[in-house]
Amino acid sequence: MEENLITIFKLADLLNDKQDKVFAQIQYTANDRKCLEIAIRSKSDYSYIEECKVNLSEQASLRWKGIIKLFESYVGGAGNE
């Protein structure tokens, strides 16, 4: 899990640096749910473009891979069209 989080943080920074239309928002709630919320938002009006929620108390390896692929696609230019 730690490796996936580091990858997502690095991609979030890249996304903000490389894109002029979108940015990443990452929020963690440390209650019983242990919920990590990750979103891609518009820089112009702050609307949500993509949003993912991961319950860290569950095994979510497929979910991590999907989030990483999503971020990679936006870093590569999907949000700048």
**Structural class of the secondary structure composition?**
alpha+beta
Major sheet description? 3 strands, antiparallel
Individual helix count:
2
Which value, in Å, is the CA radius of gyration? 13 Å
Which segments are poorly predicted (pLDDT under 50) over 5 or more consecutive residues? none
Description:
With 81 residues, the chain is of the alpha+beta class. The chain has a single domain, classed as Double Stranded RNA Binding Domain (2-Layer Sandwich), CATH 3.30.160. Helix content is 40%, strand content 30%. The protein is built from 2 helices and 3 strands; from the N terminus they run αβββα. The chain has helices at 2-18, 61-75; strands spanning 22-29, 35-42, 48-55. It has a 3-stranded antiparallel beta sheet. A hairpin with a 5-residue loop joins strand 2 and strand 3 (48-55). The chain is globular and about 35 Å long. The N and C termini lie far apart (32 Å). The mean pLDDT is 85.
